[in-house]
Amino acid sequence: MLKIGITGGIGTGKTIVTRIFALLGVPVYDSDARAKWVMHHDAILRQELIAAYGPDAFTAQGDLNRPYLASIVFNNPERLAALNAIVHPRVRADFEVWTALHTNKPYILKEAALMYESDAWKQMDEIITVFAPMEVRMKRLQQRDAHRSEEEIKAIIEKQLSEDEKMKRAQHIIYNDEQTLLIPQVLELHTYFISKV
């Protein structure tokens, strides 16, 4: 079974691409959604977060206090790195358990915006980068994340590895630029991955 990573900056359209793969029967591990799940359900991780950030890391209802954690780490690279050092190993372990449930499939996808920053690429056989030009990304993000200012969106983009660097490191690029058809690109890769098994 192949492990295929799929990445791309915020607003490039990773979600729509992974949905197309999912319609083809490919299991997709959504790193962001799973990280949230793990932070809520992994007892070891909960203890580590409380030890590092205090009881306010979780609300009175027991939910992860995302605004509180974001306020601590967003503009502090050292604190963000410390948070990632706590969370990423637990998510990697969760991915291994999830992968074991899908060994009957020719390949699986792991979607992660921070594929390289989290070292998740080291678990993958090949990487797909979803690319969209900056003006297309900004338009999508202003529609999707209307609560965020343009400055906030740019700050998030600047914290991620550049698109040029992601494209250099990837074995495959899917262009989601509103000019190139997505489905044929996904079908071509789907056929390619199946042929490798």
UniProtKB/TrEMBL annotation:
Keywords per UniProt: ATP-binding, Coenzyme A biosynthesis, Cytoplasm, Kinase, Nucleotide-binding, Transferase
Domain of life according to the entry: Bacteria
EC numbers for this chain: 2.7.1.24
Compartment annotation: Cytoplasm
Gene Ontology molecular function terms on file: ATP binding; dephospho-CoA kinase activity
Reaction(s) catalysed (UniProt annotation): 3'-dephospho-CoA + ATP = ADP + CoA + H(+)
Any GO CC annotation of this UniProt entry: cytoplasm
Pathway stated in the Swiss-Prot or TrEMBL entry: Cofactor biosynthesis; coenzyme A biosynthesis; CoA from (R)-pantothenate: step 5/5
TM region positions: none
PANTHER family membership: BIFUNCTIONAL COENZYME A SYNTHASE-RELATED, DEPHOSPHO-COA KINASE-RELATED
Function: Catalyzes the phosphorylation of the 3'-hydroxyl group of dephosphocoenzyme A to form coenzyme A.
Name of the protein in its database record: Dephospho-CoA kinase
Source organism per UniProt: Pontibacter arcticus
